């Protein structure tokens, strides 16, 4: 068996061994296992069953990650994407009032389109057409929105009739618990502790038990039913013409999350060969299939995770690392009481539902997503102004779609009216026109 594993994953050729790959797989899981807590609590705000959402999160991550390991032999893990789930929850379902069943239909269609684009090798043309400042700004804007949600969930920010938002009650024990979690998690990250976000969540939850904020419900039980979300996607409803822009946003986010992650971890692991990534098509195909599987199970877009770099830094060089990570997601299915304890909300006396345990993770993840801001050319105002508009509009309108749309429109307008029209791809002009038409459509309905 040992020799079979070594030969299948080409461990000797990659200068690694089974022990190293197992440690790397566990490390990757520890660094991204927060998604088991964060994703269900976020998407369950749409009306989805929490336990079923947790099951969908784990199963889709396990299937996609194991497929990545077996099919591509890369140590890259996948799960429901942060940013995509925010768009799914806060923009599509809560703000636009679209049911989560129809939203899952949009995700499934997006996954199918991604599969087709991958098989036809069209994705490269689309990727090269999108302006880089818009790509970087999108990641930053999503980070700002996620951090804003985390601050609200922590009770650090609350609504105000005059100033719209204001500082929350920081003397509230629930908010103080979130502050503790934020400080502890930040220290662990700075100290480069493996699985810092996960450990921060667990430490915060443990402290919350004696304080009466977190209710202990046990550690192990049989997995919850996935029936409430399994195969509940509404593809017919998603095919409505008014939802084409939503499908495009999901596709846009999925493509660039995948490309960015693959490029980043490939450089770290030394997988790049003469500027290209071998088996990149297989990796993209796996990502696309993962999205379809996730929608069928009941979770938004599944995408490659940059946290895979943690396993690669620990020595992971083959798909065995990904297989181990995927198996860990399956093992997590039997710890649903722990997930419910950590992810459950706390009702304050004023009627606000706070999530003090997971809020610090959202704030820190938002911070991490702002790293792309350094890649924007702030001296070229024809690029930095549209980028800034994307970044600022996402949290202030509570809409990822609006931020991206404003970015495309402002980018093409500034280039067009400053004599730089030839710098813009025809595809970008087309997308800008579609976004304008989308705003007109929303105004008329």
Structure explained in plain terms:
The protein has about 450 residues and is mostly helical. It has one domain. The chain is built from 20 helices and six strands. Strands 1-4 form a two-stranded antiparallel ribbon. Strands 2-3 form a two-stranded antiparallel sheet. It has a two-stranded antiparallel ribbon with strand order 5-6. The radius of gyration is 21 Å and the shape is globular. The model has no long low-confidence stretch (mean pLDDT about 85).
Topology:
Elements: H1 2-8, H2 18-32, H3 34-43, H4 50-72, E1 78-80, H5 84-95, H6 100-120, H7 123-129, H8 132-154, E2 157-160, E3 164-167, H9 173-190, H10 196-208, H11 235-238, H12 244-269, H13 280-297, E4 302-304, H14 308-313, H15 319-331, H16 336-343, E5 346-347, E6 353-354, H17 359-369, H18 381-397, H19 400-416, H20 426-444
Antiparallel strand pairs: 1-4, 2-3, 5-6
Summarize this structure briefly.
It contains 20 helices and six strands. It has 445 residues and is mainly alpha-helical.
Which oligomerization state do the chains in this entry correspond to? Answer: single chain
Count of helices?
Answer: 20
Q: In this structure, how is the largest beta sheet organized? A: 2 strands, antiparallel
Number of strands: 6
Query: Per DSSP, what share of the residues sits in E-state strands of 2 or more residues?
Result: under 5%
Order of helices and strands: HHHHEHHHHEEHHHHHEHHHEEHHHH
Mean pLDDT: 84
So what's the overall shape? Answer: globular
Main sheet: which strands, in order across?
A: 1-4
Radius of gyration: 21 Å
* Secondary-structure content class: mainly alpha
Low-confidence stretches are: none
Spatial separation of the terminal alpha carbons: 62 Å
Number of domains: 1
Helix content: 55-70%
């Amino acid at each position: 068996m040992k020799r079979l594993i070594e030969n299948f994953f080409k461990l000797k050729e990659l200068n690694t061994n089974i022990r190293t790959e197992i440690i790397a797989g566990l490390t990757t899981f520890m660094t991204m296992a927060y998604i088991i807590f964060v994703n269900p609590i976020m998407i369950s705000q749409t009306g989805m069953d929490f336990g079923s959402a947790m099951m969908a999160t784990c199963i889709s991550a396990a299937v996609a990650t194991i497929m990545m390991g077996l099919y591509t032999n890369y140590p890259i893990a996948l799960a429901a994407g942060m940013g995509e789930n925010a768009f799914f929850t806060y923009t599509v379902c809560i703000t636009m009032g679209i049911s989560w069943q129809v939203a899952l239909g949009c995700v499934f269609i997006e996954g199918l389109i991604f599969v087709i684009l991958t098989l036809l090798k069209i994705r490269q043309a689309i990727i090269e057409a999108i302006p880089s400042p818009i790509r970087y700004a999108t990641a930053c804007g999503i980070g700002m929105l996620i951090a804003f949600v985390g601050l609200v969930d922590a009770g650090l920010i609350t609504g105000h009739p005059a100033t719209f938002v204001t500082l929350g009650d920081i003397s509230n024990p629930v908010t103080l618990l979130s502050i503790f979690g934020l400080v502890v998690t930040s220290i662990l990250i700075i100290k480069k502790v493996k699985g810092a976000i996960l450990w921060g969540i667990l430490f915060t939850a443990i402290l919350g038990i004696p304080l009466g904020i977190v209710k202990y419900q046990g550690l192990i039980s049989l997995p919850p039913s996935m029936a409430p979300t399994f195969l509940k996607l509404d593809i017919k409803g998603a095919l409505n013409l008014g939802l084409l822009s939503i499908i495009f946003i999901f596709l846009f986010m999925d493509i660039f999350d995948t490309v960015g992650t693959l490029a980043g971890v490939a450089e770290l692991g030394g997988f790049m060969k003469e500027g290209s990534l071998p088996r990149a098509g297989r990796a993209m195909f796996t990502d696309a299939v993962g999205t379809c599987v996730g929608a069928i199970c009941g979770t938004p877009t599944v995408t490659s995770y940059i946290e895979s770099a943690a396993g690669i830094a620990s020595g992971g060089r083959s798909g065995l690392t990904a297989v181990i990570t995927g198996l860990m997601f399956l093992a997590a299915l039997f710890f649903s009481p722990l997930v419910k304890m950590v992810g459950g909300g706390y009702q304050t006396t004023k009627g606000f539902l706070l999530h003090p345990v997971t809020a610090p993770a959202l704030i820190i993840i938002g911070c991490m997503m702002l790293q792309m801001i350094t890649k924007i050319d702030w001296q070229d105002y024809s690029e930095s102004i549209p980028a800034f508009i994307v970044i600022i509009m996402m949290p202030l309108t509570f809409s990822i779609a609006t931020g991206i749309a404003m970015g495309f429109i402002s980018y093409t307008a500034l280039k067009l009216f400053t004599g730089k029209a030839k710098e813009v791809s025809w595809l970008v002009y087309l997308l800008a026109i579609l976004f304008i038409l989308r705003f007109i459509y929303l105004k008329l309905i």
